[in-house]
Amino acid sequence: xxxxxxxxxxxxxxxxxxxxxxxxxxxxxxxxxxxxxxxxxxxxxxxxxxxxxxxxxxxxxxxxxxxxxxxxxxxxxxxxxxxxxxxxxxxxxxxxxxxxxxxxxxxxxxxxxxxxxxxxxxxxxxxxxxxxxxxxxxxxxxxxxxxxxxxxxxxxxxxxxxxxxxxxxxxxxxxxxxxxxxxxxxxxxxxxxxxxxxxxxxxxxxxxxxxxxxxxxxxxxxxxxxxxxxxxxxxxxxxxxxxxxxxxxxxxxxxxxxxxxxxxxxxxxxxxxxxxxxxxxxxxxxxxxxxxxxxxxxxxxxxxxxxxxxxxxxxxxxxxxxxxxxxxxxxxxxxxxxxxxxxxxxxxxxxxxxxxxxxxxxxxxxxxxxxxxxxxxxxxxxxxxxxxxxxxxxx
Length: 395
Fold this sequence. Notes:
It is a single chain. By secondary structure, the chain is α+β, with helices and mostly antiparallel strands. It folds into four domains: 2-68, no CATH class; 73-124 and 169-250, no CATH class; 127-166, no CATH class; 277-394, Trna Endonuclease, Chain: A, domain 1 (3-Layer(aba) Sandwich). It is built from ten helices and 16 strands. The strands form four sheets. The protein has a six-stranded mixed sheet with strand order 11-12-13-14-16-15, sandwiched between helices. The N and C termini lie far apart (57 Å). 32% of the residues are buried.
């Protein structure tokens, strides 16, 4: 297999004779959201560029794309820890030995599988489910009408509504479906393959295999008996989002997956703020508002900070995963509209790098400033610098 190695955001030029026309068409038609392909007929070359994605994308049996991140691998660990609420897994332990994006993906697979095995040994989370059926004995509440009809027909069975104690709950179905999906992909390390198969075999006899959507993994109720499922479900959501049906399965030389870095950056900043904002400030994520009563024109603001006591909006923030030196006009107009709608004078565009030239602009009554959450630094230090500057402006 021919693997083209790109770096996030950087153009990658290949000769026409390195890429047949059919493969070029496949990239342009089927993967245009992830990869832009521009022919250069006068130079007999193609230019490939990632549209914000990193990871491994199989094109066909003969070609694949490997897109490396600009951010250090260890910092992507940190971002994923926050974005998917995986802090309790201590993913960074030993991560300095993980040099490639593919290595850490398989590390995540191993962590999930081993944690599932640990939980199975302790006993899967179980509960009571309401069931109804025709039984040869009485159990729970007898349904009079259907039971009477059955008896008139000569049956000795009773229709009962009862509770059954079972581990076949969605909490465990999420784990099983994720393991099932991971078994279908090519994993390089033999020890990881074995632990995935083992975890799947141990669950399949106790839990029904039902298709799970990534959104099923969030906003679940946890208590003292299943609190440890929360990071497990976060990791399942990560896999189901990034190794989903959009990526064709096959016998590839690596596990195919993609991560959309602008979305990861947005989720990371939001969760970092959620955990580190001082008391008295409330954070609203993905805040929706409409410009008309019929919701024909609506917007979604990445982040809004509010005074917890008064409900007053302190500022609006919009993450921009761009390494440009100047802000774009559309971004300025958009964040200005957000600030006016939320009745605040403070608006911020948040960038991942110090490549942006700092700006402090005023449009009408709204102050629009740049902030940097520098992904090239230690995330905790970069986050604190970012938060200190933010609080200084809104106070």
